[in-house]
Amino acid sequence: MTQVLERPAELARESSPAARTARRKALLEWIAVHSLGVAAALFFTLPFVFVLLTSLMSDSQALSRDLVPHTWEWANYRKVFDTPGFLTWWRNTLIYAGLGTVLTVVSSVPVAYALAKFRFRGRNLALMLVISMMMLPPQVVVIPMYLFWAKQLDLSGTLWPMIVPLAFGDAFSIFLLRQFLVTIPNEYLDAAKVDGCGDLRTLLRVVLPMARPGIAAVALFQFFAAWNDYFGPQIYASENPDAWTLSYALESFKGAHHTDWNLTMAATVLVMAPVILVFFFAQKAFVEGVTLTGVKG
Amino acid sequence: MAATHTLKAKHRRSALRTLAFLSPWLIGFAVFFAYPMISTVYFSFMHYDGFRPPTWSGTKNWTYVFEHYPFFWPALRNTLWLVVIMVTLRVLFGLGIGMLITKIKTGTGVFRTLFYLPYLAPPVAATMAFAFLLNPGTGPVNSILEKAGIPAPGWFNDPDWSKPALTLMFLWGVGDLMVIFMAALLDVPKEQYEAAELDGASAWQRFRFVTLPTISPIIMFAVVTGVIAAMQCYTQPLVAGKVASGVIQGAGTMFEPGYPEHSTLTLPQLVYNLGFQRFDYGSACVVALVLFALSMAFTALLMRRRGGLIQAGD
């Protein structure tokens, strides 16, 4: 930012006609870029604004074409919380997302470490299989998996069919962590070995502290994958509303409050808000995670 | 002799160590990938409704899906529409926003955060929001369009507009591509721009001959991962169709998927429809295998030995 402020001043000092044209050009470009920026910002934020405004309207006004509430009905949010089941759905979501995240990290870290740092035959094949699993639509294997959980183990209507698989390594998390661990220089690992550390000790004492940002990114992505999951609860929990999660329940909330866009939008805000709040605390980990999976092969 | 012996022991120890570290994934691969894949192939040749024991049916499920199931071809067409049109628009828009953010010099952090936030919106919540924003009766978007004198489309209620409405929603969530393109654009060496400028290259020529060659692997990455994501598109079209049709009464409701007129039907939805609404697990497995073949074809493109975008070796 300082650069921009300095450069026109510097040009002004030489006030030749050429310098003046250059200055005017820079100013015009600044205006054009920032107007485009504001237009884009409106496109990205207005949906949030309209959703928020509608969530604060009265029942009758939510059916009208008004954009701004006449009276601010903060009680809408209390009504949403009073909906039977709403607190259960919060609890289920937190169990699925929380327990799932812990299991994913614990089971994926050693696998990613081996794929990043061990030399063994079939390593490239293993990594290719991880990537293939990551790209696999969940619908491809859902029929046998459903029959396995529901018919053989009789666990449909619970969260377990969604949580237990996460104890066996999640392909996306393994891939993201592996991309991160590859960037840790081997010298650190060799030094630990010279000091007499075994593999497990090296992983716990040397690699884990350095991999903290990667683990944070994986934990966040996994937490939100569970938070956002619709298909899993639809397959395994739909028959039992006591096992629904927020993302799945949101749609039936609209069903129960057929015409009440205000309450539906209040519920929508309540499902979005935690994600956005967490983002503000962990912005760096998010952005790092996205670039790690996308840019560094 | 003793030396080779210890060497062998060392090898065995390192193999065991590798196995130990990989074990969570090896078990997961066998139980949650290999076993269900084999079962899916098996069930695709069986008649199975979940109640009576499965019976051999030969290729009946396959001919049923391809020739008689009324939703298969519309779903495949819709999926291809999303793969071609939505992915193209998303990559172009993501690149545009990525370039814009590298040019913004004042309040960069604020702009970047605002552009990124929609990407984080949970899919069901985003779909509920857009079903409201774009609803033809009282939705704010159509209110504004009508005030401006622009004919307002029916969005999720009009078969010609439901896919554009979905696309608009996916463009809104373009924040992940913005971040990837931004990182790639900042990696283009500054000297190359300066050299091109000295040679008298116009802005377009600088983009065409300096920027584009450098970031083309990232564009390819965005295209291929976008195609894979479009193939998996499930939650958003399903929820949008349900909300717009107004038939949601909670779980277990029989919902004819793809409202309006199959226009939001995608391949993954067929697996659910066949398996969990019609209890025809065999035919559901046929669609699952079609989906598998398509996504593996695109994944292979992502991992080709040369020119591949994800390298296995280091």
Automatic annotation (TrEMBL), chain A:
It is found in: Cell membrane. Pfam families: BPD_transp_1. It is a multi-pass membrane protein. It comes from the Bacteria. The chain crosses the membrane at residues 30-53, 94-115, 127-147, 159-181, 202-224, 261-282. Residues 90-282 form the ABC transmembrane type-1 domain. The keyword Cell membrane applies. Gene3D superfamilies: MetI-like. The keyword Transmembrane applies. Keywords: Cell membrane, Membrane, Transmembrane, Transmembrane helix, Transport. Belongs to the binding-protein-dependent transport system permease family. This is Sugar ABC transporter permease. The lineage of its organism: Bacteria, Bacillati, Actinomycetota, Actinomycetes, Kitasatosporales.
Automatic annotation (TrEMBL), chain B:
Belongs to the binding-protein-dependent transport system permease family. Keywords: Cell membrane, Membrane, Transmembrane, Transmembrane helix, Transport. It holds the Pfam family BPD_transp_1. It comes from Streptomyces asoensis. The keyword Heme does not apply. SUPFAM superfamilies: MetI-like. CDD domains: TM_PBP2. This is Sugar ABC transporter permease. InterPro entries: ABC_transporter_permease, MetI-like, MetI-like_sf.
